[in-house]
Recover the amino acids of this structure.
């Protein structure tokens, strides 16, 4: 794999909604480029996806031209059962990795585990958590939309994190 190749493909909020509507299956990562925990998570999600040889679909919560905000209520309703709770309210928080099987959200993990310290041991623990989320997915299992493969989107921030090669 070259320094700019990775297992992420960008999607827009509308495509996430289509995944649910069409009862599709995929592993989805929600995050954004300036989130330090997201930057850590990306490196470990990439390692897990590399082990499983699957694509992880990345939705940038603050994408300049396609932000999640206009769709947040609808997405939160679809993900309600797996969303973390804060101050008595369930809401989207990042980094958030989850699996959708046949249009139903299932395996998931939000954030980094509480005592995550950035050590190799902690990274390996997160990689195991992320790999477990991906356990039911096969290599190259694509998210199909209306019979056509999803268009590749810009994943500039993920490209930069992977290019640094500072993951395990």
């Amino acid at each position: 794999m070259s320094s700019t190749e990775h297992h992420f493909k960008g999607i827009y909020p509308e495509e996430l909604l289509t995944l649910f509507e069409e009862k599709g299956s995929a592993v989805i990562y929600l995050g954004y480029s300036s989130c330090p925990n997201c930057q850590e998570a990306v490196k470990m999600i990439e390692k897990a996806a590399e082990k499983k040889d699957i694509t992880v679909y990345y939705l940038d919560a603050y994408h300049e031209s396609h932000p999640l905000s206009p769709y947040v209520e609808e997405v939160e309703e679809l993900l309600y059962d797996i969303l973390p709770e804060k101050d008595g309210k369930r809401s989207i928080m990042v980094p958030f990795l989850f699996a959708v099987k046949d249009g139903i959200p299932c395996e998931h993990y939000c954030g980094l585990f509480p005592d995550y310290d950035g050590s190799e041991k902690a990274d390996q623990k997160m990689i195991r958590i992320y790999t477990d989320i991906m356990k039911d997915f096969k290599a190259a299992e694509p998210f199909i939309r209306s019979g056509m493969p999803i268009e590749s989107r810009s994943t500039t921030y993920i490209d930069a994190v992977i290019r640094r090669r500072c993951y395990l």
Observations:
- The beta strands are 8-10, 26-31, 56-60, 85-86, 89-90, 96-101, 104-110, 144-145, 148-149.
